TrEMBL record:
Keyword field: Membrane, Transmembrane, Transmembrane helix
Domain of life: Bacteria
Name of the featured protein: Dolichyl-phosphate-mannose-protein mannosyltransferase
UniProt KW Transmembrane helix keyword: yes
Membrane spanning stretches: 74-98, 110-131, 151-180, 187-206, 247-264, 276-298, 304-323, 335-353
Amino acid sequence: MLNLLRSLTEEKAVKLLSLAFFIILLVLLFASSTTTDEGDSLMHFLYAKYAFRYPAHFFNQWAKPVYVMVMAPFAQFGFAAVQLVNIFFTTANFYVVYRVAKQAGIPNAWMASLIYAATPLSVLVSFSGLTEPMFAFATLLSILLLQQKKFYFSLLLFSFLPFIRSEGLLVCGVIFIYLLVIEKYDLIPLLLFGHIFYSLTGYFVHHDLMWVFNKLSYATLSSAYGSGRWFHFFNVMSEITGVVVKYLLWAGVFYGFILLIRALRKKINETEQQELWLLYGIFLAVFAGHIVFWALGIFNSMGLVRPIAGITPLIAIIALRGIQYVTASIQQWKAGLYVQYLLLAAVLVFPFTSNVYAYKWNRDFELKADQQAQLQLVKYIKQHYPNYNQQIMYHVLPWISIQLKQDWFNPNQHIHINDAFTRNQFKKGELFIWDDWFAVVEGHAPLEAVRKDGRFKEVITFEAKDYWGNVRKTVLFEYVGKDE
């Protein structure tokens, strides 16, 4: 076995580690019940699942057209199939992050793959229907192609990033500046290709050539979720990366500023120029973008950590730069390499410690408490309302629709709570499902307001405690009208 390991090239070793990483993720997929997120994760799945029934989904700016196009065939086999595709993307990221680090000339590039695998957020989003794993892969691959000077393929791929996640616009902005810096002016129009393609193809759905901008759901200088502190994303970085990687990341960022100073003095080579713009530039653009959006309360930002999963591969590479930087003064001795290995070991061990930011099975790999309460409700509905699939239900819970095999987009099966109160077209016997988050935040229907309405009979309540001891509540109401 030792002889086999010694005979492996670095790249072959990373490929074997990629296979091992995929197997671990696969085992976790079948052992866990998590969907990672109870809202967007499930909604992205529903948009993809029903895309063939509602072709407009292929041109929906919230659902993201490229994501829907890729995921729609797999979504027909259920949510687990979408999770499996995201696991493939995460595994691909594990390998490509090594290739990008290697191309950047960073020593021990294989460490970047292990750092990526050890960042909790990278793993957790793999078990979702979210867009981040695909975005991370497309960004990484675009960077690798650009490093290899495959300009046309790279820039065309970059141009479609905004149709996987809106942060793609920030990434394209960085690439635009990079092309100016390297004086590739003639290639800049390629960054518009994705928008031109979807403007034309989506015209037959939206009858508006500018729909790619006019239908952009985040194009608002306000947010329904309020705003937060400027240092919010710095404070939650441990949730994203773990404590060890967080400090290595900031060490790597410091090295990036040294690169920037050298670039301003024009004492930088081509490979370092690529590293500065393609790794540091994209990371800082996306990270700083989310800081600003949340602090100013714009673009419907919620201050969530999960969008950063789209750039965790870059965080891994920059953290590796951090390892190289903090050990630079002792690298000429063997002790320098041992210190690097020690830091890498700390990165790998951290996710399995008792630290609050390390993995917790019942927090990270099981259904959330509100989903558990909703499952109890689904069982109750099936037992007491045998014709439930022949009547309209009012709620804002994608998990309910998935479990009841409800077409979320069919108004004869499901209507959003907001629309229900606005339209005021309730009929006797129809079911209204309230929950303590989506019904309040998205549906603007506080529980007491529903109870005081007088038209609804409170049927039953289901509760479940979350990891932190908070009680999550789901309540079933039946519409009885004013007379009863």
